[in-house]
Amino acid sequence: LSLGLKKGEVLEVIRSDKMELVDQLLRGQVGCLLMLPDGSQSMDQTFLGGVLPGSFDPLHQGHMELARVAEGLLGVDVAYELSVTNVEKPSLDRVEIDRRISQFATARKVALTRAPTFDQKAKLFPGCTFIIGWDTAVRLLDPRYYGGDAYQMRIALNDIRSFDCRLLVAGRL
């Protein structure tokens, strides 16, 4: 591939370990990539605490306040969870993933997953409390999100319970 570089110009390729791990997640080789505020990362590490899922497009004061209040109520650490796949939206590509996780530079832990549904999230975070908004709670109980099948919805809710997960639901004024 000819790049048409002029004399003295060079192409510099920079590889990021962070994005290599993201690639492993995108390929399904990793279930969860936990990113810590200090920049370190761990794959498939158990996280016990509160999990605040969202698309974070963008991360805003409401997300941060909800995490802070939940941390106080629950008495445990709270991590944000960004799923690269979503029930209602297109999957995120590497560029968009990098853009969204860069918002969390020093905020708190961020779990990057491929778990679009709460029963799948429960398998990754057994024993956790999911912190969700009222609108998400309504969708969680809507058979439409389970192929229109109320029985499948009950199976998913039982799966969440079987992993000893709980829900903390917040409303908006």
Write the layout of secondary structure elements.
Elements: H1 17-26, E1 32-35, E2 41-43, E3 50-53, H2 61-74, E4 78-83, H3 94-102, E5 110-113, H4 118-124, E6 129-133, H5 134-140, H6 150-162, E7 166-170
Parallel strand pairs: 3-4, 3-6, 4-5, 6-7
Antiparallel strand pairs: 1-2, 1-5
Helix pairs in contact: 4-6
Written overview of the protein:
This protein has 173 residues and is an alpha/beta fold. The protein is built from six helices and seven strands, in the order H-E-E-E-H-E-H-E-H-E-H-H-E.
CA radius of gyration:
18 Å
> Helices and strands, in N-to-C order?
HEEEHEHEHEHHE
Q: Would you identify the regions where 5 or more consecutive residues have pLDDT less than 50?
A: none
Q: Beta-strand level of the residues, as a percent range?
A: 15-25%
Strand order of the largest sheet: 2-1-5-4-3-6-7
Query: Main beta sheet: strand number and arrangement?
Result: 7 strands, mixed
Report the structural category: alpha/beta
Give the tally of β-strands.
7
- Report the mean per-residue pLDDT as an integer: 91
Summed up, the helix count is 6
Question: Distance between termini?
Answer: 57 Å
- The proportion of residues forming helix, as a percent range, comes to 25-40%
Shape: globular
Summary tags:
alpha/beta; 6 helices; single chain; 35% helix
In short:
The protein is an alpha/beta fold. The chain has helices spanning 17-26, 61-74, 94-102, 118-124, 134-140, 150-162; strands spanning 32-35, 41-43, 50-53, 78-83, 110-113, 129-133, 166-170. A hairpin with a 5-residue loop joins strand 1 (32-35) and strand 2.
